[in-house]
Hints:
The protein starts with a helix and ends with a helix. The protein is mostly helical and 215 residues long. The chain has helices spanning 2-8, 42-64, 74-80, 83-100, 112-122, 125-138, 185-188, 192-199, 205-211, and strands spanning 143-149, 155-161, 172-178. The chain is globular. The protein has a single domain (1-215), classed as Iron/manganese superoxide dismutase, C-terminal domain (minor pseudopilin epsh fold, 3-Layer(bab) Sandwich), CATH 3.55.40.20. It has nine helices and three strands; from the N terminus they run ααααααβββααα. It has a three-stranded antiparallel beta sheet, sandwiched between helices. Strand 1 and strand 2 form a beta hairpin.
Amino acid sequence: MKRILLLSALAFVIATTSAQTGFWGLIQLPYASEALEPVISRRTIELHHGKHLAGYVETLNLLVKDTEYEGKSLEHIVRHSSGVIFNNAGQVLNHILYFQQFSPQGGGVPTGRLARAIEEQWGTFDDFREEFEKRGAALFGSGWVWLAQTADGTLIILQEPGGSNPVASGCRPILGFDVWEHAYYLDYENRRLEHLRSLWDIIDWQVVGERYARP
Length: 215
């Protein structure tokens, strides 16, 4: 029952499948491409969303056509596929969650149930934040660092290589930072940790808090 809750509750942020065609479109950003400056530049947003994510969406649509995955949810594909289909489905899911968690009015700290759960797990939000940044900076190569929720409701920090997502291991993704170089190199060059530390200033904690499922 808890696993069903964790996975099905993602539906409100993954409204990207057409009921008529079973294919995905590129999500619209909930802010202007320059709205997150100086944390993320307009040029980075244009390339990251308009080129990288668009490429994953186009490739995934081509790959799943006339296969067992056509018409399935992104979560289903990530949980059950492998190889190139898994990589592209994971990256589409990752980037939808990533871009929707930001706001030019973001920042501050989480509140409510999510804040209490973080404090129960790490002691303070600052301790969680420090551990999250360390795990993101330490991930070798390209990938993601996620705050995720296990099937029993526990909060954990996961390093996901490549295009993987916590959904692949039955967890619920709550907050994700992209550590592929295309996410930050134009703005921060090789300073990955600086990039990670700056992202807290644009986190929309209302959006992120809504991803946290009641245990």
